[in-house]
Amino acid sequence: MFRFGKLGDGGSGAVNDRDGDAGRAAPRKRADARRNERTLLDAAAAVFVTSGVEAPVRDIAARAGVGVATIYRHFPTRADLIIAVYRHQVESCAEAGPALLASSATPHDALGRWVNLFVDFLVTKHGLAAVLRSDEAGFEALHTYFLDRLMPVCARLLEAAAAAGEIRPDIDAYELMRGVGNLCIGADSDPRYDARRLVELLIAGLRLPR
Asked: Whole-model pTM?
């Protein structure tokens, strides 16, 4: 995964106005670099969802509005890019949970919207095992990271919906995530199978009778 290097020290002695300007510019530069990387990862994730992880890099570059060389500068290999997208989407899903709870009409609605994001992530994730086939330890580390970040978010959404009297209180986050994952298996290889529709039916079925 691409890392940004630290700026070197400017040396000893008095700091003039020009040095001060450079010091103030550095954080902006790093922030711009992080935004640029997020733009690339968002573009790659969107392309992977529709075209799979073997999609041409030029398609990702076109969606991000950059040149192909920019993609390779940030992510020298396809594996680097796929793993970075994986981690980026995990973080996006984790951060979306509290935001959806705050902005949705009901906790159940927030849960449904979050699960839609989770489905997008699962579709993107399908090519990860093949990419890491020769690195079982790396795959296991990413799987642990995935569970550690997303299970508490899913649990919080379920707890909020249960507290509002919308769903049963005994639904386990791991159980739900595993069920959604199983519904998504094969969705990218069978055009007659609409995994998202089945997942929506699952989430609707969690509701308690009024």
From this structure: 0.75
